Amino acid sequence: MTNPYPQQPHDPYGQGQGTYGPGMPAPYGAQPPGPPPDNNLVWGILTTVLCCLPLGIVSIVKANEVNKLWYQGQYDAAQKAASDAGKWAMWSAIASVAIVVIVFVFVIAAGAISFSTYSTSY
């Protein structure tokens, strides 16, 4: 006959919560150290819709991983996913501002070239 209750994992460091190493969940029954971190999902959606689509999508994917990892007991991985989601959203906003500046400079330069060639050819 097998034991119907799973054994609690051995805590080699005596911490009682957190992770043992990369990808290792917290011990059975361990309480999370607080609420989940901010997943930056709103920023990911806003930058996807208003700014740079590819980078915003990566931000949304990272933001969706945060709560899943947190409730699996992978607190460090959840913190990293939340941080990555914020970074991708920030880079999406920066990329869109850079694109707008480049287009603006191009339009001004094209207008100046067009104006100079038009005024000199009588």
Structural class estimated from helices and strands: mainly alpha
Average pLDDT works out at 81
Query: Helical segment tally?
Result: 3
Largest sheet: none
Keywords: Membrane, Transmembrane, Transmembrane helix
Transmembrane segments: 41-61, 88-113
Subcellular location: Membrane
Organism: Haloechinothrix salitolerans
Write the layout of secondary structure elements.
Elements: H1 41-50, H2 53-71, H3 75-120
Notable characteristics:
122 residues; mainly alpha; rod-shaped; CD225/Dispanin_fam; CD225/dispanin family protein; membrane; CD225/Dispanin; transmembrane helix
Describe the model.
The chain crosses the membrane at residues 41-61, 88-113. InterPro entries: CD225/Dispanin, CD225/Dispanin_fam. This is CD225/dispanin family protein. The structure is a single chain. With 122 residues, this protein is mainly alpha-helical. The protein has a domain at 41-120. The protein is 61% helix and 0% strand. It has three helices and no strands. Helix 1 (41-50) runs antiparallel to helix 2, helix 1 (41-50) packs parallel to helix 3 and helix 2 packs antiparallel against helix 3 (75-120). Mean pLDDT is 81; it is low at 14-20.
What's the short story on this structure?
The protein has 122 residues and is mainly α. It has three helices and no strands.
